[in-house]
């Protein structure tokens, strides 16, 4: 029997790792993470806790990732964890939020792999704290999305949009039109973290590790 833990490593600063994540990472025989040009942000977060574990960066194609790629990743994980041992697949933030792990998990279940998820602090939760943006109070709702459409704003009180590189100006115009106060949060909890409210400055920035958090009527 072998077991894989899907481990959330939180927003980036190692102090936001959970004790459980650290224990599982330290006891794992193999650590897996997606290969981003030889690097991985989750792996950077846990670097102090890598000792004897084998580290495997799994390749995914640039652009569209197919079901075959997830099947292939599941096969690698199944092959690399020795019988009777555990592995940990690392994801930034939380594994159940917009992560590659979700697709791989489905393929691993078909191989009867024993799987357990260890939650991590999601990026937008860390960002809400850093920018002191309340996400919800009694009777409110909150929307998390990757790609933004103005129709989504409907009845929403607070919103976090993860993909900010495309159509950023339209996005900010929509938020303003619907009376949302917003912040752009970049590399949250990392040394070079920035929280930007100025529209022109937000429009200039092109960092993938960023999101926009907004709250309706926050300036009222
Ligand atoms: C594939 S999603 C992964 C989300 C992650 N599972 C989570 O729970 O936050 C990648 C996006 O997460 C966001 N993200 C993750 N860590 C971040 C950080 N430290 N600062 C700002 N944005 C971050 C960015 O919007 C990035 O485009």
Overview of this protein structure:
29% of the residues lie in helices and 24% in strands. The chain is an alpha/beta fold and 220 residues long. The protein folds into two domains: 3-118, Tetrapyrrole methylase, N-terminal domain (Cobalt-precorrin-4 Transmethylase, domain 1), CATH 3.40.1010; 123-216, 2-Layer Sandwich (Methyltransferase, Cobalt-precorrin-4 Transmethylase, Domain 2). A five-stranded parallel sheet has the order 3-2-4-1-5, sandwiched between helices. The longest helix has 14 residues, at 67-80. The radius of gyration is 19 Å and the shape is elongated. It starts with a strand and ends with a strand. It binds S-adenosylmethionine (SAM). The site of S-adenosylmethionine has 21 residues, from strand 10.
CATH homology group of the largest domain: Tetrapyrrole methylase, N-terminal domain
Shape: elongated
Write the H/E string, N to C.
EHEHEHEHEHEEHEEHE
Gap between N and C termini: 58 Å
Residue runs with pLDDT of under 50 for 5 or more positions: none
- CATH topology-level name of the largest domain: Cobalt-precorrin-4 Transmethylase, domain 1
Give the helix tally. Answer: 7
CATH class of the largest domain: Alpha Beta
Mean pLDDT reading? 96
Count of beta strands: 10
Q: Strand order across the biggest sheet?
A: 3-2-4-1-5
Helix content: 25-40%
Instruction: Quickly count the domains.
Output: 2
Radius of gyration: 19 Å
Largest sheet: 5 strands, parallel
Class inferred from helices and paired strands: alpha/beta
Strand content: 15-25%
């Amino acid at each position: 029997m072998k077991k894989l833990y899907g481990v959330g490593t939180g927003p980036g600063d190692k102090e936001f790792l959970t004790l459980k994540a650290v224990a599982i990472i330290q006891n794992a025989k193999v650590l897996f993470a997606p290969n981003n040009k030889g690097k991985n942000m989750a792996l950077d977060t846990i670097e102090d806790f890598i000792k004897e574990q084998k580290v495997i960066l799994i390749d995914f194609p640039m652009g569209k990732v197919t079901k075959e790629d997830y099947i292939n990743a599941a096969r690698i994980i199944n092959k690399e964890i020795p019988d009777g041992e555990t592995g940990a697949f690392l994801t930034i933030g939380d594994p159940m939020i917009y992560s590659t792990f979700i697709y791989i998990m489905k393929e691993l279940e078909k191989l009867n792999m024993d799987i357990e998820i260890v939650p991590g602090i999601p990026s937008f939760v860390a960002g809400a704290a850093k920018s002191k943006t309340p996400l919800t109070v009694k009777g409110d709702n909150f929307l998390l999305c990757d790609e933004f459409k103005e129709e989504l704003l409907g009845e929403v009180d607070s919103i976090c949009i993860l993909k900010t590189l495309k159509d950023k100006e339209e996005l900010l115009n929509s938020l303003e039109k619907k009376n949302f106060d917003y912040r752009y949060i970049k590399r949250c909890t990392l040394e070079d973290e920035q929280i930007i409210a100025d529209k022109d400055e937000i429009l200039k920035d092109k960092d993938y590790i960023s999101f926009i958090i907004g709250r309706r009527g926050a300036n009222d």
